[in-house]
Amino acid sequence: MARKAGKKTSKTSASAAGTTSDCEAPALPAAQELGKWDQRYFQICAVVASWSEDQSRQVGCVIVGPAKEIRATGYNGFPRGVNGKVDARHSRDGEEKYFWFEHAERNALYNAARSGVSTEGCCAYVSLFPCAECARAFIQSGITELHAYVPPERDRKYARSFEVSRQMLHEAGVVLKLFEKPKEPFVIQP
Ligand SMILES: [Zn+2]
Hints:
There is one protein chain. The protein is of the alpha/beta class. The chain is about 35% helix and about 15% strand. The protein contains seven helices and five strands. Strand 3, helix 6 (about 130-140) and strand 4 form a beta-alpha-beta unit. It is globular. The chain starts with a helix and ends in an 11-residue tail after the last strand. The structure holds zinc ion (ZN). Zinc ion binds near residues 105, 130 and 134. Zinc ion binds next to helix 6.
Protein backbone atom coordinates (compact mmCIF):
# COMPACT_ATOMS: atom_id res chain seq x y z
CA MET A 1 0.00 0.00 0.00
CA ALA A 2 2.65 2.44 1.13
CA ARG A 3 4.73 1.66 -1.93
CA LYS A 4 1.94 2.59 -4.30
CA ALA A 5 1.25 5.81 -2.44
CA GLY A 6 4.79 7.13 -2.97
CA LYS A 7 6.31 8.27 -6.25
CA LYS A 8 9.56 6.37 -6.45
CA THR A 9 10.71 8.24 -3.40
CA SER A 10 11.58 5.26 -1.29
CA LYS A 11 15.01 3.88 -2.01
CA THR A 12 14.48 1.13 0.50
CA SER A 13 11.39 -0.26 -1.15
CA ALA A 14 13.10 -0.22 -4.54
CA SER A 15 16.10 -2.09 -3.26
CA ALA A 16 13.96 -4.46 -1.21
CA ALA A 17 12.10 -5.44 -4.34
CA GLY A 18 15.35 -6.60 -5.86
CA THR A 19 16.67 -8.67 -2.99
CA THR A 20 17.53 -12.24 -3.73
CA SER A 21 15.09 -13.47 -1.09
CA ASP A 22 12.30 -12.28 -3.38
CA CYS A 23 13.67 -14.53 -6.08
CA GLU A 24 14.13 -17.71 -4.12
CA ALA A 25 11.71 -20.37 -5.26
CA PRO A 26 9.76 -22.24 -2.57
CA ALA A 27 10.77 -25.80 -1.75
CA LEU A 28 9.34 -28.38 -4.09
CA PRO A 29 6.55 -30.55 -2.71
CA ALA A 30 7.41 -34.21 -2.20
CA ALA A 31 6.72 -36.45 -5.18
CA GLN A 32 3.44 -38.34 -4.91
CA GLU A 33 2.46 -41.78 -6.07
CA LEU A 34 0.70 -41.77 -9.43
CA GLY A 35 -2.98 -42.56 -9.01
CA LYS A 36 -5.08 -44.14 -11.72
CA TRP A 37 -6.26 -40.87 -13.27
CA ASP A 38 -2.82 -39.31 -13.06
CA GLN A 39 -1.43 -42.33 -14.90
CA ARG A 40 -4.09 -42.00 -17.56
CA TYR A 41 -3.42 -38.34 -18.23
CA PHE A 42 0.36 -38.79 -18.17
CA GLN A 43 -0.10 -41.63 -20.66
CA ILE A 44 -1.94 -39.24 -22.93
CA CYS A 45 0.83 -36.67 -22.39
CA ALA A 46 3.33 -39.29 -23.57
CA VAL A 47 1.31 -40.09 -26.69
CA VAL A 48 0.81 -36.41 -27.55
CA ALA A 49 4.51 -35.70 -26.88
CA SER A 50 5.46 -38.38 -29.39
CA TRP A 51 3.92 -36.23 -32.16
CA SER A 52 6.53 -33.52 -31.57
CA GLU A 53 9.14 -32.95 -34.26
CA ASP A 54 11.57 -31.61 -31.66
CA GLN A 55 14.72 -33.65 -32.05
CA SER A 56 15.99 -33.07 -28.50
CA ARG A 57 12.99 -32.97 -26.16
CA GLN A 58 9.40 -34.05 -26.72
CA VAL A 59 6.82 -32.70 -24.27
CA GLY A 60 3.09 -33.30 -23.97
CA CYS A 61 0.41 -31.35 -22.09
CA VAL A 62 -3.18 -32.30 -21.31
CA ILE A 63 -5.64 -29.83 -19.80
CA VAL A 64 -8.40 -31.42 -17.77
CA GLY A 65 -11.63 -29.93 -16.44
CA PRO A 66 -13.13 -30.53 -13.00
CA ALA A 67 -15.31 -33.39 -14.28
CA LYS A 68 -12.14 -35.19 -15.46
CA GLU A 69 -12.93 -34.26 -19.05
CA ILE A 70 -10.05 -33.50 -21.40
CA ARG A 71 -10.37 -29.96 -22.72
CA ALA A 72 -7.19 -29.57 -24.74
CA THR A 73 -3.86 -31.16 -25.57
CA GLY A 74 -0.61 -29.77 -26.93
CA TYR A 75 2.93 -30.74 -27.79
CA ASN A 76 6.02 -28.70 -28.50
CA GLY A 77 6.55 -27.83 -32.12
CA PHE A 78 6.53 -25.30 -34.90
CA PRO A 79 3.46 -23.10 -35.32
CA ARG A 80 1.00 -24.49 -37.83
CA GLY A 81 2.18 -23.87 -41.38
CA VAL A 82 5.74 -22.96 -40.40
CA ASN A 83 8.32 -25.14 -42.11
CA GLY A 84 9.84 -27.51 -39.58
CA LYS A 85 11.94 -29.34 -42.14
CA VAL A 86 14.74 -26.74 -42.08
CA ASP A 87 17.60 -28.20 -40.03
CA ALA A 88 18.90 -24.79 -38.90
CA ARG A 89 15.61 -24.15 -37.15
CA HIS A 90 16.26 -27.13 -34.90
CA SER A 91 19.72 -25.93 -33.89
CA ARG A 92 20.44 -25.10 -30.28
CA ASP A 93 23.65 -23.30 -31.36
CA GLY A 94 23.01 -19.65 -30.75
CA GLU A 95 19.66 -20.75 -29.36
CA GLU A 96 18.13 -20.56 -32.84
CA LYS A 97 15.50 -23.22 -32.18
CA TYR A 98 13.93 -21.26 -29.34
CA PHE A 99 12.71 -18.68 -31.84
CA TRP A 100 10.82 -21.31 -33.78
CA PHE A 101 9.34 -23.79 -31.33
CA GLU A 102 6.25 -23.27 -29.21
CA HIS A 103 5.99 -25.17 -25.94
CA ALA A 104 3.45 -27.92 -25.31
CA GLU A 105 1.71 -26.02 -22.51
CA ARG A 106 1.07 -22.90 -24.56
CA ASN A 107 0.03 -24.96 -27.58
CA ALA A 108 -2.57 -26.69 -25.39
CA LEU A 109 -3.87 -23.29 -24.27
CA TYR A 110 -3.89 -21.99 -27.86
CA ASN A 111 -5.76 -25.11 -28.98
CA ALA A 112 -8.36 -24.45 -26.30
CA ALA A 113 -8.63 -20.84 -27.49
CA ARG A 114 -9.05 -21.91 -31.12
CA SER A 115 -12.04 -24.02 -30.22
CA GLY A 116 -13.50 -21.64 -27.65
CA VAL A 117 -12.92 -23.94 -24.68
CA SER A 118 -12.43 -22.34 -21.28
CA THR A 119 -9.45 -23.39 -19.18
CA GLU A 120 -10.70 -21.61 -16.06
CA GLY A 121 -10.34 -23.81 -12.99
CA CYS A 122 -8.67 -26.60 -14.96
CA CYS A 123 -5.78 -28.87 -14.08
CA ALA A 124 -2.81 -29.09 -16.46
CA TYR A 125 -0.75 -32.25 -16.84
CA VAL A 126 2.72 -31.77 -18.30
CA SER A 127 5.45 -34.30 -18.95
CA LEU A 128 8.12 -31.69 -18.21
CA PHE A 129 7.97 -29.01 -15.53
CA PRO A 130 6.75 -25.75 -17.15
CA CYS A 131 9.16 -22.92 -17.90
CA ALA A 132 8.48 -19.39 -16.63
CA GLU A 133 6.71 -18.34 -19.85
CA CYS A 134 4.35 -21.32 -19.70
CA ALA A 135 3.76 -20.79 -15.97
CA ARG A 136 2.66 -17.23 -16.76
CA ALA A 137 0.39 -18.54 -19.50
CA PHE A 138 -1.17 -21.11 -17.15
CA ILE A 139 -1.79 -18.53 -14.45
CA GLN A 140 -3.33 -16.05 -16.88
CA SER A 141 -5.52 -18.74 -18.45
CA GLY A 142 -7.10 -19.73 -15.15
CA ILE A 143 -5.26 -23.02 -14.58
CA THR A 144 -5.55 -23.72 -10.86
CA GLU A 145 -3.72 -27.03 -10.53
CA LEU A 146 -0.59 -28.41 -12.13
CA HIS A 147 0.50 -32.04 -12.19
CA ALA A 148 4.04 -32.49 -13.50
CA TYR A 149 7.02 -34.76 -13.22
CA VAL A 150 9.74 -33.63 -10.82
CA PRO A 151 11.83 -30.98 -12.65
CA PRO A 152 15.31 -32.02 -13.74
CA GLU A 153 17.97 -31.19 -11.13
CA ARG A 154 20.21 -29.61 -13.71
CA ASP A 155 19.07 -28.04 -16.91
CA ARG A 156 21.50 -26.06 -19.05
CA LYS A 157 18.87 -23.77 -20.46
CA TYR A 158 15.92 -23.78 -18.06
CA ALA A 159 17.26 -24.10 -14.50
CA ARG A 160 16.49 -20.48 -13.57
CA SER A 161 13.30 -20.51 -15.59
CA PHE A 162 12.02 -23.51 -13.59
CA GLU A 163 12.79 -21.64 -10.35
CA VAL A 164 10.90 -18.53 -11.42
CA SER A 165 8.07 -20.73 -12.64
CA ARG A 166 7.81 -22.39 -9.21
CA GLN A 167 7.84 -19.03 -7.50
CA MET A 168 5.11 -17.59 -9.70
CA LEU A 169 2.90 -20.68 -9.47
CA HIS A 170 3.29 -20.58 -5.69
CA GLU A 171 2.42 -16.89 -5.42
CA ALA A 172 -0.53 -17.25 -7.77
CA GLY A 173 -1.94 -20.09 -5.67
CA VAL A 174 -1.68 -22.80 -8.33
CA VAL A 175 -1.74 -26.18 -6.58
CA LEU A 176 1.38 -28.09 -7.59
CA LYS A 177 1.58 -31.88 -7.46
CA LEU A 178 4.77 -33.61 -8.51
CA PHE A 179 5.35 -37.20 -9.55
CA GLU A 180 8.43 -39.27 -10.30
CA LYS A 181 8.59 -40.08 -13.97
CA PRO A 182 8.08 -43.85 -14.30
CA LYS A 183 11.12 -45.68 -15.65
CA GLU A 184 8.96 -48.31 -17.30
CA PRO A 185 6.03 -47.64 -19.62
CA PHE A 186 2.70 -47.52 -17.81
CA VAL A 187 0.60 -50.62 -17.41
CA ILE A 188 -2.94 -49.53 -18.17
CA GLN A 189 -5.16 -50.00 -15.16
CA PRO A 190 -8.80 -51.01 -15.65
ZN1 LIG B 1 7.41 -23.49 -21.56
